[in-house]
Amino acid sequence: MRHLLGLKDFARTDYDDLLGVARQMREVLERPVKKVPTLQGVTVVNLFFESSTRTRLSFELAEKRLSADTVSFTAAGSSVSKGETLRDTARNLEAMKVDVAVVRHSSPGVPHYLARCLNAQIVNAGDGANEHPTQGLLDLLTISDLFPERGDDLTGLNVSILGDVTHSRVARSNIYALTTMGANVTVCGPPTLLPRGIETLGVKVTHRLDEALDGCDVAMALRLQLERQGAGLFPTLREYHQRFGVKAEHLDRHPNLRILHPGPINRGVELASEVADHENAVILDQVTNGVAVRMAVLYTLRAGQGG
Ligand code: CP
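That is the input. Now the predicted structure with phosphoric acid mono(formamide)ester docked in place:
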């Protein structure tokens, strides 16, 4: 693996290998000194052209835990705000001889473009509505941990992905990961927020939340991507919550249902606040796993290059 651009072409063995390394990294994170010299001498730049809390901080932490030299770039406060192009920004990074670039951008395909024009290894930290591969991996680890008796085989597990699938890179990466690992995936939302032809990815489609939650083991609520939506995709946030939000009554009816959300949460929209804070919600476990998974990705990428 030279770059991590997406999960579309990952095989079961790729997931098994990465989850195995992530669990070893989690052990490192449990030690009193949470640091290993694995990436000493490696320079990583975090290129965030779009806002982020979880992904940016967990990549930065992962890099520091692996002893890499890191620099972080956010578009605000950089020469992008003076009109510098992506290509020129990339060429300047190349001149500084970075080894790995972690890239988030609002346009799909930017990490793929940088992989073509830079010598550095590229990690996609979210490109528009295309993919968010490290989120897919940390969600897979979180779900696998909920069912340890399965040993990472999710065959027959019922997972429902709820909400704004059309604008969600998290949904796409999760669909690739979960279906490859054998889960039955259902997507549920208003017709305006489910992409036409999504069934071709091997998922079931419903527009009824009750149907999506019936027999469901894990529900993953997606953030409404208001910044990427046009107007008029649903009447009001209140009505959206009434029809598609997970509420306490759903957990009363399905007491074993586990809840994931990639964050940031719109409380009272995708999830009622009491559901977000409920013991069945593993949202902060997802965040914890994010550091270990990103360590595993960086370690694996560098190991493939001989260290
Ligand atoms: N889940 C996720 O990508 O969160 P951030 O946008 O805060 O990185």
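Strands lie at 43-48, 69-74, 100-105, 121-127, 158-162, 184-188, 204-206, 218-221, 258-260.
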